[in-house]
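haha ok so turns out i had the wrong file open the whole time. this is the CORRECT one, sorry everyone. sequence first:
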Amino acid sequence: MKVLSLFDGISCGRVALERAGIKVEKYYASEIKKNAIKVSKFNYPDIIHIGDVNDVDFIKYNDVDLLIGGSPCQDFSRGNKERLGLKGNKSSLFYKFLEAKKIINPKYFLLENVVMSLDDNIFISKSLGVEPVNINSSLVSGQLRDRFYWTNITGNSGLFGNMIKQPDDKNIKLEDVLENGYCPLSKSRCLLESDSRPLSTPVKMFHRFYSTGFTTLVFKTIEHYFSCKKHYDKYYKGLSTDNFNLDNSVYGGVRYLTSNELEELQTLKKGYCRILKRNETACLCGDGWNIDTIAHICRGLK
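then structure:
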């Protein structure tokens, strides 16, 4: 197959197609992040990088068989207070995917995005001519990753016409992924880019984990976790963590997920991002696709 991947990131689409047993003749990738391109080139030197999606002349790729992409989600995300949706600068890039689909008219397409407002979901569905399938990658990995997939790939159909069936639950827990330590969560929370910018002190890291629910934090042991919880409940619950007169040594040793753990949560092969620093890996894994979920969908191509 000839594939055009928009908003390609670290080429998770290529990995998924390979895992699904789909032979790729050419893989064109539109991406602007330098580190993402570096990782893609390291793993797949044959990928043809075509630059910024805003500058791509789609008519040049009218022989493409499969169009894929996960357009930027920031304006859709529930973590964004404004939630401008398709009116936002980033999420409005969906229209470039739609433009590519209309010009190229590929045999197959696949678009991924986060849970969004009903109005935006309906608009995207009408524009692409298909209803999305909702899959949480918690079924195939140790993380919570609830996403919508719009596709006309039907070979892997479930009970509802062209809807892709749900993957089998592999019952993978976060503890199965951790290299060491303990986390009270059964599944990792979203691989947010904010995880790639660790807060300045362990007590602030614990505060974000315990009170906001956005991050995944790993403790030395289960006893360490309960010691941190007890101290926080006593001294900080409902208050600022900027009291420098307190002894906060109990929080020492808390950590975020390692590069290998982040890769495994996305079901990437270990070391896929090894040319990057940990924080760079966190950012790009958060942007990327869960490989086993996409491979599950793409097996329908066979």
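The CA atoms of residues 203 and 248 lie 7 Å apart.
again sry for the mixup
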